[in-house]
């Protein structure tokens, strides 16, 4: 039986591991160009949140986590208040103050293709919906990222449609409490 998946808010001590994962080709292909360690510090350090804060309460509007299988960290996940990022050009039409967006990746290439992404998303949706205020969770993979899209659909995300974001065209998908599989 697989170990349970848990989440711990990202800390400054985790930044070297995060940098290592961001440097891996399977992550850089979909996430961002490989950053330097200093760029990781500049980007992620200001958004660190206390261990017990929920995304709707985060001062920066985002909470970043390491996902663990048992006691082994294997993925990075983040959740953010969708409306908190409208000033950056994201989600201009969103009017729900309790809608969350998520992004994630598995950092360990040897764990890909084993169903861990599905388990990760199911566990993260359960974790997020423990907050009764959360109404919907959305994500926006590249339309070319067939593996991610299949995984999202498998756990209950439904296609909303193609959208234009500051990063270019993306496929907007949403999950609700009732749509989860």
TrEMBL record:
Pathway: Siderophore biosynthesis. Coiled coil: none annotated. InterPro entries: Acyl_CoA_acyltransferase, Acyltransferase_MbtK/IucB-like, GNAT_dom. GO terms for molecular function: acyltransferase activity. This is GNAT family N-acetyltransferase. It comes from the Bacteria. It holds the Pfam family Acetyltransf_8. PROSITE patterns: GNAT. Keywords: Acyltransferase, Antibiotic resistance, Transferase. Residues 5-178 form the N-acetyltransferase domain. It is an enzyme of class 2 (transferase). It comes from Hyalangium rubrum. Its EC number is 2.3.1.-.
